[in-house]
């Protein structure tokens, strides 16, 4: 299985359960591993056959920036669905990190895997 990845994509959004979190934007960090067969894109040197990480990033920046979820779990599920449904990756690992959410920790969050590995 080949992996296309996006590492440490930082996006400002409203997320959290506390009153102040509902009005104050916070940065979330996304890390994604996405299954893709890279043989055809490599053979033809053709971006149209590749999983275009720039287009995935742009879509996620737009989506996450406009979202207003309470839980990072919900955000992770929605991000995974976008990657699978809109971009056709059969398997995705999504890690959502909220930096500074817990005193003494660099970040907290969730990691999920959805779909089937090739």
At a glance:
With 118 residues, this protein is α+β, with helices and mostly antiparallel strands. It has helices at residues 39-44, 53-66, 72-87; strands at 3-13, 26-35, 91-99, 107-115.
Helix content: 25-40%
Number of DSSP strands?
4
How many DSSP helices?
3
Q: Within the largest sheet, what's the order of strands?
A: 1-2-3-4
- As residue ranges, the low-confidence spans are none
Content of β-strand: 25-35%
Please state the average pLDDT score: 96
Bulk shape: elongated
Order of helices and strands: EEHHHEE
N- to C-terminal distance: 5 Å
Q: How large is the radius of gyration? A: 15 Å
Major sheet attributes: 4 strands, antiparallel
Structural class, by secondary structure, is: alpha+beta
């Amino acid at each position: 299985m080949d992996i296309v990845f996006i590492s440490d994509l930082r996006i400002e959004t409203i997320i959290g359960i506390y009153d102040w979190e509902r009005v104050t934007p916070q940065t979330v960090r996304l890390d994604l591993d996405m299954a893709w067969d890279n043989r055809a894109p490599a053979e033809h040197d053709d971006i149209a056959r590749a999983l275009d990480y720039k287009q995935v990033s742009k879509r996620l920046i737009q989506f996450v920036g406009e979202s207003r979820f309470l839980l990072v779990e919900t955000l992770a599920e929605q991000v995974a669905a976008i990657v699978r449904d809109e971009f056709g990756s059969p398997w995705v690992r999504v890690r959502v990190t909220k930096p500074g959410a817990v005193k003494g920790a660099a970040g907290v969050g969730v990691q999920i895997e959805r779909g089937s590995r090739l």
